[in-house]
Amino acid sequence: MQFRRSAALLVAAIAGSLALTGCGSDSKAGSQDAAGGGSGKRTVTDANGKKVEVPAAPKKVVTLSEPTLDAALALGVQPIGATSGRGQSGVAGYLAEKAKSAKIVANVAEPDLDKLSAMRPDLILLDETVGAKRVQDKLKGIAPTVLTAKLNAPWKEAFSATADALGKKADGEKLLAGFDKQVGEVKGALGGNAGAVTSVIRWQNGAPSVVGKGKGHVGDTLAALGLSRPKGQQGESIGHSEPVSLERLDSIDGDWLFFGALGDKAAGEKGLKEAGGVPNFNKLKAVTKHHVVVVDGSAWNSSGGPLAAQAVLDDIKSAMTKKS
C-alpha cells in the first residue's frame, strides 16, 4: 500500500500533462503531426544509433522488457503486450495491478513471435536485458521496434529513451525531477543511518546472491542517498545477480540488510525463515541488530524503472528514517 501511495505521488506532478498526452489524439502528438506534415510519424534514435520511424501517438504498444513496461506504466501508457517477470508467469509482481490489461507475449529469454504478431502492435519497445534483442529484425517485420538501452545502461537514461520513443520526453523529465526531489528528502532524514553500509541480497536455492550493483535502480538509489555498500557489492555486476558461498556469509553483512527472493514479499519472508536455519546467518550484524528488511523481490530484483526505483526508495525510507 505504501508503494502504491508513493507511486501515485510520483506521477501526480505530471498528471495534467498525461491527461493531454494520452495514447490517443493528444496535443503533443498534434504538434508532432504538424511538424511531420500530418503523417502521424516521428523519428527517434535507438540505443544502436539507428533512426527509427515511430507513431507520433502509439495506441498499441508492446513492451518486451521489465524496464520498458515499468517506464510505460509510469508514464500512463497501457501496453497491450508485455514480458513476464523473472521467475513469474505474469508481469513482475510490483507491476501487476497497473498492467492488468497487458497480455504476456514474451519472457526474459525470448518473445512469442506468433502471439506478438497477432496483436498487430504499432510500436515494440525492448532493451538488452532480454533475449528478444537477438530477433530485432523479426520484430521490425511486425511493427516499428525501438531498442531503448544497452545492457547495464543507467536506468534513468533507459527510462528517458523509452519516454522519448513514446512521445513523452517532457513527462519523463518531470517524473525524474520529482523522484530526485524525494531522494533528497529521504537522504536528509536518514539521521544516524547516514552513510550506513547497506547490503542487498536475493535468497534463492538455499543461498544468497548479491543484486543491485552498478547503475541500476537499486545501486543508483543507494548511491544517491549516500549509503555505502559492503566491499563485495561495489562496482559493476558481472550478471543480473552474483551467487555468494554460504562459507562467505560475512561478505553480505552490513549495518542494514535488504532481503528478497525471486517473487513477492511473501516469498522473501519464506526465504528469510530458511536463511535463519543456515549456520552463522543469525550471527550477522544486521540480524543481531534487527536491521534485516524483507522486500518485494519482484521490484528490487527487476531490471528496473521509475516504479521499481520508487519501491526501493519507499522501503529505505520506511526502514532507515525511523531508527538510527
UniProtKB/TrEMBL annotation:
SUPFAM superfamilies: Helical backbone' metal receptor. Keywords: Signal, Transport. The keyword Flavoprotein does not apply. Residues 24-50 are annotated as: Disordered. InterPro entries: ABC_transptr_periplasmic_BD, Bact_iron-sidero_bind. It holds the Pfam family Peripla_BP_2. It comes from the Bacteria. Residues 1-21 form the signal peptide. Transmembrane segments: none annotated. Gene3D superfamilies: Nitrogenase molybdenum iron protein domain. Residues 60-324 form the Fe/B12 periplasmic-binding domain. The keyword Transport applies. It is found in: Cell envelope. Residues 24-34 have a biased composition (Low complexity). PANTHER family: IRON III DICITRATE-BINDING PERIPLASMIC PROTEIN, IRON(3+)-HYDROXAMATE-BINDING PROTEIN FHUD. Belongs to the bacterial solute-binding protein 8 family. This is ABC transporter substrate-binding protein. It comes from Streptomyces varsoviensis.
